[in-house]
Amino acid sequence: MSAVAPQKSLLVNGYEVVIGFETHTQLSTHSKIFSRSSVAFGAEPNTQASVVDMALPGTLPVMNKGAVERAIKLGLAVGGYVSDKSVFARKNYFYPDLPKGYQISQFEIPVVQGGAVSFLLDGEPTSVRLVRAHLEEDAGKSLHDDFVGQSGIDLNRAGTPLLEIVTEPDMRSSAEAVAYAKELHKLVTWIGICDGNMQEGSFRCDANVSVRKPGAELGTRREIKNLNSFRFMQQAIDFEILWQIEQIEDGYAIQQATVLFDPDTGETRAMRTKEDAADYRYFPDPDLPPLVISREWVARVQAAMPELPRVMAKRLIETHGLSVYDADMLTASQHTAAYFEAATSGCGQPKLVANWMMGELSKRLNGDGLEIAHAPVQALLLAALVARIQDQTISNNAARQVFDALWNGESADVDALIESKGLKQMNDTTALEAIIADVVAANPDNVVQFKAGKDKAFNALVGQVMKASKGKANPQQVNDLLRAALEA
Amino acid sequence: MALTSDDMARLSRLARLEVNPQTQQQTLDTLNGFFKLVEQMNAVDTDGVEPLAHPTDAMGTVAELRLRDDVVSEPATEQARTANQASAPAVERGLFLVPKVIE
Amino acid sequence: MSAIHEWGVAETARQLASKQVSSTEVTQALIQRCEAYQGMGAFVHFAPELALQSAKEADVRLGAGERAALLGVPLAHKDVFVTKTMPTTAGSRMLAGYKSPFNATVVQRLMDAGAISLGKLNCDEFAMGSGNENSAYSLVKNPWDTSRVPGGSSGGSAAAVAAGLVAGATGTDTGGSIRQPASFCGITGIKPTYGLCSRFGMVAFASSLDQAGPMAKSAEDCAVMLSHMTGPDLDHDSTSLDVAKVDYVAALHQPRLGATADKPLLGLRVGLPSEFFGAGLSVDVNAAVQVALKQLTDMGATLVDISLPRTELSIPVYYIIAPAEASSNLSRFDGVRYGHRAKDYDDLGDMYQRSRSEGFGPEVQRRILIGAYVLSHGYYDAYYVKAQKIRRLIAQDFQAAFQQCDVIAGPVAPTVAWGIGEKSNDPVANYLADIFTLSTSLAGLPGMSVPAGFGAGAMPVGLQLVGNYLNESALLHTAHSFQQATDWHRRSPSLLTPGAAA
To answer: What is the pLDDT along chain A (488 residues), one digit of tens a residue?
Structure first.
């Protein structure tokens, strides 16, 4: 990592904040990393723990190809180096949820080296460098609540494949940290290596936070473990930053520690540190020869990769002239992007589609708490609606009524709705000219005032015409024809 | 350099073994006797030699990890669990019981 | 006709196939003998009922004309192989009464070939030892002199075969644990190339060294068993070699190119490492080995002087690598999911410490401490990495040697079996006794012990044969030819007094 960290100075009470992330992404395989048991969530305790996962005597690990393939995808997505040879090592420590007494992980040579994650921070292009991503097995769970003075061990999660993604200490604010985490979350779900379900722990972030006076060397860091929601992430980091500054200001030195965030108190508290954490006695796992990844395999995976969100956003800006912000919003997820592409190709109106998606559509989605994939108004339906706005069949206001009707399922036929609701704009001039003639005749004073140069009078006449046309007249057309009639 | 009783205490903690006051000195002597034996390794020039972690790596072909297809074939049944827990010291409702884990 | 207990694997199979005798008769005879010589301490778990049940089933299949290489042949397994129908202890208090939900691959394959099992055989705790004095269960006595050790760690297997309690037995070899007890008890045993037998279901000692193999009366017996123990086990063991199965019995009778009836080993180059015949080798063992080498030359082989310069280094290298792997492999024994859990403890950490300290014997604890030390921060490079580098040099030395010879020959151990208790308070002396077998294990090469006469105290001496990778056939062919011309392997101890059961 020779490149230097991007220079950003956002001081908090005169301190610079330094944040690095370690994210455990649970890979979306069917079976575990070293055994053939299912990784499905929520099974009966220990029913998804095979003899291998329980580390019964005589059992041995056999590597899951699907986990390796997902690691390759991540490596390609972040522009890192996919190691042609990486090594599995044993991390030795005792813990009841660690059945073998060691975790199989990667230490000296990880499967992905380097790379970076780029995203917008307040509209500014930002990039966080990655140190590495390595494959490892998850541990089981200790359940404390059900038993007095005892804990129950469930090994269903033991052996679930994880990809631990480690950044350089590049982040300078909690906002940037959250933006990074959101972008990484978007990326791993976009390329389909992780289901991204944070409630179920599929995407767990540990934040290494330290503060220092500008220019000083790195301060002692504390690691906030298991940040499983973006909201708590920001709260936890902000609390930690202020707590550390306060300690230093009060003349205390920061002790390296692992802390947990308590959403109820909004505070972080130090965990009871695992003894001997300092000495994991890593060594190459003799049960697993080195992981060799051929360039051919990498090329095959590359060929099957979807267009990445940043690449797609760039394309939308260039081909559709969308704003950077719009492009970023429309590539928030693969579903959103797919919706936009389908709707646009359906009506050829990218800007209108973008406006409707970020306006009416997202408003209704938020209102009903729906994912775009389940929106009652799917892409082609919106395309049909937008087409009717474009060809002036209906006004924007009318379109909103149609959209509501479509959303509420009154009908799935845009034109039928326009008909039944009589929302068609009157674009036939002779009919309109007749109405205008009547209105002009019926309102001589306004005409006089208009001729005297009072625009308000003109607007009053326009209102009369619109009223007479029951709102179906095309306002622009009314303006032109009325002006023509008066100035005749 | 010889191991001290402090080393013994540290290693015992690492290995989750109790230090037995009766046998500690004898164990220490044995270990130190062994590490004398080890000193002859220092004389060997191993510059540029790749460590041999897997014997297969010495069989002419490079040792390479075999990968299995991502397929579930283990039964997720309570019968299987019962068999796997047959020798467990303490189980309740399918969970292994241990003294409270404090985090 | 010789007695049933003298038949061994191949002969028993022949007798059963030709219906001269039933599996039940054979099994009953051996059960009686096992009971008579219980005091030998060979078994940790003796399963006569189970064996007779299997024998009955085998007789039915034999009656129906079914043919399977080991159908109805009574064997027994070293207690480091997990078994569904019998408990598995690995010679440790830690695993007392442990029931495995599955069979070790090696055990399953022998069962598939029709073999039946008389029980589980005693061994050093977690296969750590050279005298079988580290078993948490009974001492095992050497059938040739019950005041001596049978060797280790597969001492129960060696004693059971030598005493004719079983037709053949399985063993495991991490640094000599098949070859040395075979030598001490005057039987034939082979440790195949690392990865040839699946390690699935073997309670792990040192993962990069552990290898299963047969222990029996003759090379032919070993060939029959090995043919049904090997083969890829890709679903269960990432280090299992993906190579085609070999019929080692056919290999026995495959004449060497240009060989003749009276010179069956014509053209075979036998390498003699000078380091194997130095001051450390006792006179009596050397004498027996020399006679055996003379025999090989009489059969047409030519002797070649070679050098394995790092033989002495194999001791520190092995006793760093094996404990390092063991200290990690034995971490799973924490009293949580299986195995010994202390009765009283204050908290979780205390439960770990007490359970492990009560469950593991002194030698195992010693090796766990050594392993933790050589892997610990600040010592890893100086000890573990250095040892792994020298390990590669040792493997390279063998490849250089095999440029000059086809097989390597020498003693298995510097001395014959020592007296029980003689070395038990000097572990390091035990380590030194492994000097001739460790380098083979470190390189992952196949090695064999062939009965080659007797030394001091009329105790058996073994000739060690080492072959290149996957060259088990050459070893078995050489040993078989040797056994056609000698009868050392047919000698059996005169167990006059079943009072060995003392």
So the answer is: 334 444 555 899 999 999 999 999 999 999 999 999 999 988 999 999 999 999 999 999 999 999 999 999 999 999 999 999 999 999 999 999 999 999 999 999 999 999 999 999 988 899 999 999 999 999 999 998 878 889 999 999 999 999 999 999 999 999 999 999 999 999 999 999 999 999 999 999 999 999 999 989 999 999 999 998 999 999 999 999 999 999 999 999 999 999 999 999 999 998 866 544 579 999 999 999 999 999 999 999 999 999 999 999 999 999 999 999 999 999 999 999 999 999 999 999 999 999 999 999 999 999 999 999 999 999 999 999 999 999 888 888 889 999 999 999 999 999 999 988 888 877 777 888 888 889 988 888 888 888 888 888 888 888 888 888 877 888 888 888 888 888 87
Please give, rounded to a whole number of angstroms, the shortest distance from the CA of A113 to a CA of chain C.
24
- DSSP annotation of A381: H
- Cα C178 to Cα C213: distance, rounded to the nearest angstrom: 7
| C78 a catalytic residue | yes
CB contact under 8 A, C354 and B40: no
Catalytic residue list contains C153: yes
| Structural domains in chain B plus CATH codes | 5-42 (1.10.20)
The pair phi, psi for residue A152, each rounded to 5°, is -105, 135
B68 vs A64: CB contact, 8 Å cut-off? yes
Q: Which chains form contacts with chain B, at 3 or more CB pairs under 8 Å?
A: A, C
Check C54, C130, C177, C355 and give the catalytic one: C177
All domains in chain A, ordered by first residue: 11-300 (no CATH), 308-420 (no CATH), 429-487 (1.10.10.410)
Residues of chain B contacting A62 with CB distance shorter than 8 Å? 66, 68
* Structure letter (DSSP) for residue A307: P
Report the gap between the CA of C398 and the closest CA in chain A (Å).
Answer: 22
A positions 186-215 inside 8 Å of B (CB): none
Q: Read off the pTM.
A: 0.92
> In a mutagenesis test of the B interface, which of C89, C94, C134, C428 is the best target, namely the one with the most B β-carbons within 10 Å?
C428
Query: Domain-by-domain residue ranges, chain C?
Result: 4-258+470-490
Provide the shortest C-alpha distance from residue B80 to chain C (in Å). Answer: 9
Report phi then psi at A106, rounded to 5.
Answer: -120, 135
ipTM higher than 0.85? yes
Q: Can the peptide bond before residue C153 be classed as cis, meaning omega within 30 degrees of 0?
A: yes
Residues contacting A305, CB < 8 A, separation 6+: A73, A76, A77, A191
Q: Are C235 and C199 in contact (CB under 8 A)?
A: no
**Range C4-258+470-490 classified under CATH 3.90.1300.10:** yes
